[in-house]
Amino acid sequence: MKRSKYFLKTLKNVSSQEKIASARLLKQAGFIEESAAGRFYFLPAGQRVQQKIMQVVKEEMDQAGAQEMVSPILHPLELWKETNRTNTAGFELMKVTDRRDADFALGGTAEEMFVDLVRRYKISYRDLPFNLYQFSPKFRDELRARGGLLRVREFIMKDAYSFHRDEEDFKVEYRKMSDVYTKIFNRLGLETTIVESDNGYIGGEYCHEFIVDSEIGESRYFKSTKGYAAHEDVARFKPDDKNLSEDMLELKEVDAPRGTTMQDGVNFHKMPLWQQIKDVMFVDDRGRYILAVIRGDYDVNETKLKHLVKAITLRPATNEEIREKLFSEPGFISPVGIKNKLEAGVELLVVADSSLRTIKNAYGGSNKKNLDLFNINIDRDFKADIEGDIALAAAGYEAPDGGILEEKRGIEVGNIFQLGYHYSDKMRGAVYTDKDGTEKPFYMGCYGLGIGRTMAAIVEVWHDDKGMIWPESVAPFSVNLISLGENEQAEKVYNYLLENGVEVIFDDRDEASAGEKFADSDLVGCPYRVVISRKSLEKGGYEISKRNSGEQKIVSHGELLKQLYE
RNA sequence: CGGGGUGUGGCUCAGUUGGCUAGAGCACCGCGUUUGGGACGCGGGGGUCGUCGGUUCGAGUCCGACCACCCCGACCA
């Protein structure tokens, strides 16, 4: 490709507001251009990169036995109603209506479509397992797009869906996909951490995200010094035992004219924070009151709580609700005796965090203003409806594997989900015929990979103050050939490289100065730069330099190809 | 949805207490000179100042509404 004719307009000045390197560089180098917020044009150079990323993904997916296909982008809305995702999808679903008033969702993910496809056939256990995937535009009406390609409203995603007889068979595929993803990202120049994550509205049993560490990433996760890694929403830790050797003392009420915060309790009673009980009242989507009870030095993890009580949404209860519906007092809520006063029709679930088993003789509120209780002990003084892990992890805590948790930030570039029977249960007829002649639901998995976000992540990792530094696997061109007043010789080299299958962009512009060509070359970031000038010819050939190391030397015409393939 | 901010040639921005024909740099076009780190000279084209309404002799500038975009938060595979 000749630069003089290539639709690549690099910019000298780019908005000072753009602080994220990948967004700034991709725009400045003319790879992408924003249409409306979160919707991007991929210009020729950007599209070359995008296609190369897709090519790597395709090669590895095919190698793993997955089969590429494509589904419609408009999904019949009835399908989303079947799985109730019109309400629970985490992103606002975009809808369109056709002239006959038929409603469609603009696909943000395609579980329903693939299940709907598969259930149209009579599938035998002999057909299983299989894994179908596609590259297709996805639409998500995000509240806020940000960071160039990092968070957008329209993007190309590789999404794959696997169908299995049972969990055991699924697990083979899940592990395989995990390996495939690691390999894909490595080929793209990215190191990823596999992080346990929340499955969110997709449902299913568990999932993992692939995260590229980066300061500007939006995903926060915890990593143990011994290897365990989990998203902050689901990260587990071992609460340390505090005073278990103490004897249980008698429950007693004490005057406590104090403020309503945890710290007020500590200051007033001069007792440690961990010995206090923290009580947080929520209301869920069904109107149930949920009292989360946890050790005072920990915080409640709403995601864990939501899963434990099987709620779709949670909100904090208001002070009025606490007083008028639960007959308690904000700042003095207690699990002790709170259920005794409930009116008919008011449902209250007491959820205790396992950390309450690490302390004895706790102190805390009494459901009455300015009165506290001492020596509260679980089981003896109150019973939990549900007991489990609802604690928010933090840096420095002990990880489940015995290491110490460290807080990390990163960009989520892919994820893999165990869907289990989530979709095949909800969608009628999503069954195969087993060996014994009975119909059984599919056991499923799905596997997503954002192409544009991966591109942004590559730039975040691979750039310097002059521009991007593309790994060879995804560079728009391998060679940026620059002629400084030696167009005739350069043209020969250009044709020679093309004939030998080298992807080259030839900067043949007469009107651009040497400095401009060099600056552009650094900005665009092709792995190799080859300069042909009077100076290089005098030294016996062409100057070749590597973008990633800056290493530079003069090579003769005959050595050029060898240098590029080294 | 809450808080903050910005809308002026394609881009980055200036434009004073309301006052002459609305400016600069970059980009673009023409001619010429240039080629090892974002060249130079001369000439040129391009703006209903986000939209609508209001105040005024007069509005880019003041007021109101709306729209778009950006940042923070909420939210979020």
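The first helix of chain A runs from residue 21 to 28.
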